[in-house]
């Protein structure tokens, strides 16, 4: 194999541990926190169009669609623009309403996913402006877009996407911030604080890795679980979806991600002493609500693994296991909270003896319908 595993057992774990560097690479030449400067060269000619847009439609598949859901929160919160996130495969067959000043952002690691490519061709034919957020340079989606920003995560070999996701979220954060700054929807103070926080993310991801041994112990306890539920709110809702997807993809354990508040409309019926529930419970604006969702699960004897903010003293008294992540600005939380979920799924899959890098029935790049 030309690209080596660098001493790791699998590409996936190598790629998980590469994230401090790949996130930094996705910001290199774009973010200068010390001087409060942010530029996205590939988008500069289209920035005015992006700022003027009434609506952004994001299309993608799989993990890239989850990055799109994170971006929906980011663009709405920071840049106050209406965002819709679509599965490319649904969008392309639905005769969607697209207007000429709509911006369509296609997110794709490979840049070759057939449904995503077809979705942008359709949007283009209706006059929309297409931005591609791709990892593979010169890929079909990158070439079919009017403009874009590469994620620069480096080659991703593991079929289950890890570092490509965090790079996508990073680039989308930079985009949302650039628009917000230009529109004046955030103050200079918040803008500068977010740039500084982004700059700190790679070292905070390294801190999450200090929990790797603990996560391995938790993985050992739950190796043979039959089901898993992942719950989160706000920006941590897409992270819950992504955590469940990672587990399904490589361990073949059935897992569902849900918005925590929706639990009472269905998944709560599944909870008993055999059900592991992973809560994304970082200290953010929905913290109190998540605490009561945890109580609801514990009252039904579910076994709770909570991803919490460093120094949280309340949740550890309520749950079975906690994994800490460093504090950051709320909008950047997904970049940290997803890391323990990647590790948990990796260790469980390895303990089950799965083919982690090439799970059955899955392909790295889906170039057919
Ligand atoms: C496949 C891969 C996933 C990926 C999805 C979208 O299902 O196994 O990891 O998220 O395709 O791929 P893309 O290259 O468009 O991001």
TrEMBL record:
Cell compartment(s), UniProt: Cytoplasm
Record bears the keyword Repeat: yes
Record's keyword terms, sorted: Aminotransferase, Cytoplasm, Glutamine amidotransferase, Repeat, Transferase
GO biological process: amino sugar biosynthetic process; carbohydrate metabolic process; fructose 6-phosphate metabolic process; protein N-linked glycosylation; UDP-N-acetylglucosamine metabolic process
Residue span, SIS domain: 46-185, 218-359
Active site positions, chain numbering: 364 (for fru-6p isomerization activity)
EC number(s) reported in the record: 2.6.1.16
MF terms (GO), sorted A to Z: carbohydrate derivative binding; glutamine-fructose-6-phosphate transaminase (isomerizing) activity
Keyword match Cytoplasm: yes
Catalytic activity: D-fructose 6-phosphate + L-glutamine = D-glucosamine 6-phosphate + L-glutamate
UniProt GO cellular component terms: cytosol
Record text on subunit structure and interactions: Homodimer.
Cited function: Catalyzes the first step in hexosamine metabolism, converting fructose-6P into glucosamine-6P using glutamine as a nitrogen source.
The protein, known as: Glutamine--fructose-6-phosphate aminotransferase [isomerizing]
Gene: glmS
Full protein stretch here: 244 to 612 of 612
